[in-house]
Amino acid sequence: MGAYSERGKEILNTVTSIIDQEATKGTPGLGKRVADIIADQFGGQQIYLPFDRERRDARIFAEYRGDNIHAIASKYRVSTHQVYKIVQREKAKRRQKQTLLPGVRIGQQQ
After folding, report:
1. How many H helices and E strands in the chain?
2. HSE value, Cβ hemisphere, 13 Å, CA-based, for 9
């Protein structure tokens, strides 16, 4: 999930649990049922729903095709420069996660 406060994690986990439970009952009226349950659970409280930057960045990377930079920037309310930086950062993260094949050496000719 990102770096959330404990309360933020608790809220997101509760909302996720509510939606998961209600989704098993079928979709007609799902939105109203979930809204009613959330209102019962948190009614009268001021709550903060944390923003998960990691998920947003992963979605931006998944949607990026090279020719849709302006659409992505508009959709996620970020600058085009920020989209480029996010794409570069996500590419680097994915490169780090890849493991080498046995017998492959980087930087040495075979």
Report:
1. 5, 0
2. 6
